[in-house]
Amino acid sequence: MFDGLKDRLNDFREEADEAVEEVGEDQETEEPRERSDGTRQEPEEQDGDAEIEEGDGEDDGEGDEEEEGGLRAKAKTLVGERAFIIEEDDLEAPLQDLEMALLASDVEVDVADEVVEGVRESLVGEKKHWRDSKNELIDDALREALVDVVDVDGLDFDSYVRDTDKPVVVVFTGVNGVGKTTTIAKVAKRLEDDGFSSVLANGDTYRAGANQQLSEHADALGKKVITHEQGGDPAAVIYDAVEYAEANGVDVVLGDTAGRLHTSDDLMNQLAKIDRVVDPDLTVFVDESVAGQDATNRAREFNDAAEFDGVVLTKADADSAGGAAVSVARVTGKPIVFLGTGQGYDDLREFDAEGFVDELLEQRE
Ligand SMILES: Nc1nc2c(ncn2[C@@H]2O[C@H](COP(=O)(O)OP(=O)(O)O)[C@@H](O)[C@H]2O)c(=O)[nH]1
Ligand SMILES: [Mg+2]
Q1: Out of 78, 79, 320, 322, which residue is the most buried by the measure of CB atoms under 10 Å away?
Q2: pLDDT tens, residue by residue, 67-98
Q3: So where are the chain's domains?
Q4: Region labeled Disordered — which residues (predicted)?
């Protein structure tokens, strides 16, 4: 999963690592002091300015250039007993390559910019970092910049279901073939594992075979499914499922929808009608991770047309690039809730932004 992105990020880490110059042993640096309770006290808490000035003084000529417009902005970084100098010029090539790597991984262009600027800001400038190693310094900068774009506050599906009056009505939207129906089956399984009952509603009244597909999943999982004739009204199907859930004490209604919506007006009209008729608690947008930039663009369009609460990215198991997973939350302002990681009912992973970023950066030994 996301191996191409992992490799590209790794290339940047190695390149940046080489670009960061280690200052010689005779360079005067200050070690973190030990407090009496054993915790590390970072010197800049006390007298940071003095050290920066001291550092600048040792490096001939740099002060003038900085005063001339900051073209060679510089950070002195003290790491344990060693100091590292990061010149903006030195970082320029690695940062450009990082931008290219992110774009090649299908990261949305503004999101790629933001990640690159985040890394630049962390590493370059009049600020000191205390780290054990160069690697750690660069990794922390990259990790922070990625988490900043991926981690979006919002829906926590499990606690939402737990804490909301039953039945909880969840409607799944997204274009045809991305994995909505499969995701609904997986979510039904997950809910059951957590002790919640569910009923499935086939609001995909457009496609021939949709009733049968959802019914097969329902049979396999021992779930009730509500269907209408092909061509019927999706809102009416989901309404019937809500009535069924209310009458039978079912915790969650999982409503499927058709993906064949040609314009955002169609989408608005259908979702507006579902809103009017059943007033769902949650709308979840489903798209496939492998669609990369297309998935991100569709997410933006859907969210503009009819705001959703969270995103499921399916087929992450088949996605090397990872750009949709990096971009979609930032672009829509809605968190990724789950990743689909295969075709089995258990192949649904709760998405955790920090865990995801850690995994991306895991390869370095
Ligand atoms: N590898 C993989 N395939 C998936 C995943 N989710 C769905 N699929 C497959 O994608 C295809 C389309 O799924 P479906 O649920 O019918 O999409 P829908 O048209 O959006 O309802 C099916 O063959 C699914 O088995 C996933 O997470 N990983
Ligand atoms: Mg379907």
Answers
A1: 322
A2: 444 434 444 444 444 566 677 888 999 999 99
A3: 3-150, 157-360
A4: 1-73
